[in-house]
Amino acid sequence: xxxxxxxxxxxxxxxxxxxxxxxxxxxxxxxxxxxxxxxxxxxxxxxxxxxxxxxxxxxxxxxxxxxxxxxxxxxxxxxxxxxxxxxxxxxxxxxxxxxxxxxxxxxxxxxxxxxxxxxxxxxxxxxxxxxxxxxxxxxxxxxxxxxxxxxxxxxxxxxxxxxxxxxxxxxxxxxxxxxxxxxxxxxxxxxxxxxxxxxxxxxxxxxxxxxxxxxxxxxxxxxxxxxxxxxxxxxxxxxxxxxxxxxxxxxxxxxxxxxxxxxxxxxxxxxxxxxxxxxxxxxxxxxxxxxxxxxxxxxxxxxxxxxxxxxxxxxxxxxxxxxxxxxxxxxxxxxxxxxxxxxxxxxxxx
Length: 350
Prior knowledge:
The protein is of the alpha/beta class. The chain has helices at residues 9-12, 57-72, 87-99, 113-122, 148-162, 177-193, 216-228, 242-251, 284-296, 321-324, 327-342; strands at residues 20-21, 27-30, 44-46, 77-79, 105-108, 128-131, 141-146, 167-174, 198-205, 233-237, 255-260, 276-282, 303-307, 314-316. The strands form 2 sheets. It has an 8-stranded mixed sheet, with helices on both faces. Strand 10, helix 8 and strand 11 form a beta-alpha-beta unit. The chain is globular, with a radius of gyration of 19 Å.
């Protein structure tokens, strides 16, 4: 079983996020919110590193399952990853879901790309999806990807407008191209407001296996270091590790910017929400739901399915009233968003 610390675990263990132990020792959930199913099993979903309860990426995927189950009367299944697992373990997990009749079968995260490619070839009548990767090309695979750099650009604008010291920070979970997109957009957005702004940058690990996406303690230590150097707004693109960043920002009474989900609204982070300025969101829930709906409608999505500011698939959350009611900040964001949408601003990805 996974052994990573979580902030306010009790807050995560709500009815909607109940986890049941499976016979093989992993954990899975009957995610349906209705017992009167239509007979269709629905989505088979395998989580990324950090698992359910990260209040971020994986939980957004689960929200997509919940919506599909409620609307289509499905009884979907979601399965946790295991510490130190191999690609063969991922292949077996996806095969088990396919054999059991789940459709679509979705791997949450780029780490599933090789496994999705292998298993999809064996089950051509089932639709597979992989989130955050577009290398798999097959007639029954949907590559669900996002313009993370666009939302991160807006996060950079917000950070540059909110800082009192002209000094901000970026913390990436793992030093990989996907997270480079978050950094590139954030830095570009901040410098569009203040070219001389000081920006701390740090990656927690070089590989996901070292815990960059699943270690709140690593996020906490990184945030402490950046705050000691003078940063008073810190943006983390680090999955579960970002909880440590938010906790530390709150302890120092400075702003944190969340990622993937609207972290201001997350139950496990409720005690820190007054210090969550905004979150750079991507609609993973919508991607999961839309793929399930396309399968149900008999017209499965395949190929690259990319979400952007223009499609509403990425953006900034405005749940915090301080953020929402800051007229100067909102005006700057409106101008930046318009520029990205009309092409006058090209956001960097590296």
